[in-house]
Hints:
CATH class of the largest domain in chain A: Alpha Beta
Mean pLDDT of chain A: 95
CATH architecture of the largest domain in chain A: 3-Layer(aba) Sandwich
Number of helices of chain A: 16
Shape of chain A: globular
Radius of gyration of chain A: 22 Å
Number of domains of chain A: 2
Oligomer: homodimer
Strand order of the largest sheet of chain A: 4-5-13-10-11-12
Low-confidence stretches of chain A: 1-9
Structural class of chain A: alpha/beta
CATH topology of the largest domain in chain A: Rossmann fold
Largest interface: A-B, 82 and 82 residues
Amino acid sequence: MSNTHSATPVRELGADSPAKGLICRNCNATYDLIAQHACWQCFGPLEVDYDQAELAKVTREQIEAGPQNIWRYAPLLPVGVHPEDRVSLNPGLTPLIDAKNLAKALGMRKLWVKDDSANPTHSFKDRVVSTAVSAAIKLGFDRFACASTGNLANSVAAHAARAGVPSIVFIPHDLEPGKIVQSAIYGGKLVAVQGSYDDVNRLCSELTETDDFETTAFVNVNIRPYYAEGSKTLGYEVAEQLGWRLPEQVVVPMASGELLTKIHKAFEESAEIGLTEPGKVRVFGAQSAGCSPIADAFAEGTDVITPVKPTGIAKSLNIGDPAAGPYAIEACRSTGGGMAKVTDDEIREGVRLLAATTGVFAETAGGVVVATLRKLLESGQLDPEAETVIYNTGEGLKTLDAVSSLVGPTHTVKPSLKAAKEAGLLES
Amino acid sequence: MSNTHSATPVRELGADSPAKGLICRNCNATYDLIAQHACWQCFGPLEVDYDQAELAKVTREQIEAGPQNIWRYAPLLPVGVHPEDRVSLNPGLTPLIDAKNLAKALGMRKLWVKDDSANPTHSFKDRVVSTAVSAAIKLGFDRFACASTGNLANSVAAHAARAGVPSIVFIPHDLEPGKIVQSAIYGGKLVAVQGSYDDVNRLCSELTETDDFETTAFVNVNIRPYYAEGSKTLGYEVAEQLGWRLPEQVVVPMASGELLTKIHKAFEESAEIGLTEPGKVRVFGAQSAGCSPIADAFAEGTDVITPVKPTGIAKSLNIGDPAAGPYAIEACRSTGGGMAKVTDDEIREGVRLLAATTGVFAETAGGVVVATLRKLLESGQLDPEAETVIYNTGEGLKTLDAVSSLVGPTHTVKPSLKAAKEAGLLES
């Protein structure tokens, strides 16, 4: 946060932004830019509605002149055009890695890894939390909160610490130890809920209705529309990093399905407003077999999601009742993409393969994406000749337990040349 | 790595670089840019020797037009001016954070945190490994290796994976589990040595003399001069991020002491060659009480280091026989700086305080720096009115065990509003 303009009068949310309000994804009812996530008329999910003419004024040069983080895309977001409005760890502009060795291993012509573990708290959640809490302050909230499978908890607690704002984050009690310690270390309240993520989410929805939580912003509940928009930057960034070109195929991990729909939206939007040439990006969704309600609905040819009780090692994707599932299915269908699910063993092998070929150590969600990529190539759904981007959304250090049985020292020796010789280290 | 100039003939190490050779820090004997780390005449340590006139030609504009990573400083380094010569994960340009809340907590006027946990493998080691392995390829080596307390092992293994080069890394057998898994996941050989870091280091020195390791580059042993230069970027970056100004005080963690001496060198050099205004930066060194040979020698007014057997939680700093100790002492003395050492409890509290005030979760080495900062303020050695930069060199997720007893969920509840009420969550 910069305080250089602290004398400037406080602007309302949306001032100098292309966002003109909220719109229901279901019935198209419109609302002002308020703290609301579900339509009062049909209960459909709300999202930010933009003035297309304003979006179309944004130029490549304007973006390129911006900061080296997500805020370079602020002219395409509902908040953050003015630096002093940003409540942020300044995530973004994470590496887009030319994954030559992985492409070769999989028989692909051109493969990129978008590595969002490079964000400040090491997941893509820093993007959505930055847009959410920046909006929250504008909307008059004075405490940050979330329901989380871990990565979001880390990010909300860290954003609150940097901003000096109280926080209260809710997590399932059985998360990976790393994610628990990382959320707790920043201070603030950390509530372990004895239930699944979906239980945590329900509890948070109930809490938003209480007087005690009236000024608490649950980033992914009562201010969800502003949160979700942060994910758009993962589409725009890839386009910019490719030299303002769209890739031909992308593979995206799915929990709620929201990330995939927003990346898809960013690609469509960037072509519509002329930042990139028109082009169709085939969008593919990845889930773990332990929690695959979206991939299963896709496979069955329906868009009705049947909630499941999640299991398996890809805990950051374990949302059994995914709110944006139908929209993710629509994005994959409409672009000629697809979906697949992979087992825990395939996920572990995906983590290992990615690390060994790119130097990127991903959390299990990244393993889901690599394993899904492989599966979609084997089934012929994904074209090995088409330029492809896969998204790694989190850090391997957060899910060490999942792979610690897989790898370890290859040799153990006493500290002597003799011992090294006996261990075979001198036969290179 | 870019392959855009793959048709260009291979240049020798040092071509188009300001580096003119190696020079003995002790007796000033000079050498060509070869794979050598100790002086043949006096056994003193060698470092890269530059043509000052060439360095002085480097401009701010030239650097600012470079890439968003350490290679923008390539004109000041022995290798990497040409993009195709870089064997690298492209670390650097990590955040310099205006630590307002921490400054306030400690009664300081202006405090910055240089957060090098943002590098690809989440420590400053990516900087030194990038310069070392780029030089190694030029010098004809075909395998990357190191002796490591963990962070370096992670970085060498990841660099090797990205470059498609074999690696063999040596670590003490009792490292934090995170650092072991993170090094192993990238593939390559990982040798757990049943001894201390100093034992590991001795074994590696012996191995470099064997025929089987003739073409193996131990980044911090036989090509150490090129490795050490990477640390200079941590000085230049801070100067550039401050708007080409020098800070008044810095606090740097010490293991071998090399990082501190190179940051000091970068500040002196940047003023000498006109990239910044002349200015004296008071340099302070931080060690843990479990391994404080440099701080102890400083306190005793000597520059003779008495080796120790390291203990304590700051494992990444646990070098009992620190090669650059005397030079670190000289840097602190000559600038009117100082040194201090801190206990494990103070280190833990330092990690917690940094996280709670800045949103930066540091490994124990970062806790050492924050605790030392506090101690130097209390003793009056550090001026609270002077603009200060502290260096966090690693990631908290790598040393979770050290703080896991300190923090955890503040509440545990069943997933119901009733349970939340009973737990006192509705009395905000």
